[in-house]
Amino acid sequence: MPERSRTTARRRWRRFFATSVVLVAVAATGLALWSNRQEPAHKNTDTAAADPTSTPLPDLQHAQADLDRLTIAWNRNWESYERNAFGPGWSGRGGEPVLSDGCTAREDVMKRDLTEVKLAESNSCMVLSGVLNDPYAGEQLPYDRFQASDIEIDHVVALGDAWRSGASDWDAERRQYFANDVGNLLAVQKQANQDKGSKTPDQWRPRAQFWCEYARRWVAVKSRWGLTVQATEKSALADMLGACSPPPAR
Q1: In the chain, what are the domain boundaries?
Q2: Distance CA 190, CA 203 (A)
Q3: In this predicted model, what pLDDT tens digit does every residue of 30-39 receive, in sequence order?
Q4: Between 20 and 30 A from 77 (CA), which of 13, 32, 66, 163?
């Protein structure tokens, strides 16, 4: 091939190569811009809001670490609390939301906490009968769906206390998620639930045999949902965690 032809070919190849590089760069930039537009302006990194079904019960070591990290603050906005701020179902008028398993939070708790459970044949969420070994007072309570019951579903960290320790600043969706967090719910004796009300552990405690689990559950819920504690509440929780048996030596 003549020298002039080779020179022309090299120039064409260089132009082709340069053009290809530019096109690839433009395409990559366009793809990045398109991807950014598909992402929401603010990603939801709140695991509690993304998966509200159940706060897990931690072991003693994790509960103690979580307790140390809880923020101490005075209760606030107590005068503006309304139970219906946490969505339907907990104000006594029904209308609970259905969770991802197709059952309501109440139904999931009854199935979890009762023994000798009999479910309806046409509805696997509905508990027809069972027996509750009540954690608060230590009583054994029979349950029959068609008779008056001494069993109620308790928010361990009560909605009223949640409101005073941070939930008053949440939006309605987050409050409804909290109200239906199965990890914060227990089937308990009716009278014990009413005695507890929205009291914190420095004001009310279950029987001593249940202090360990109660405190672990309380700390886990407050930690997961970013709620504050008062100084006396934190001290009471530390005392109750002291009732936990230490892990066996290895």
Answers
A1: 1-39, 52-241
A2: 18
A3: 433 333 333 3
A4: 66
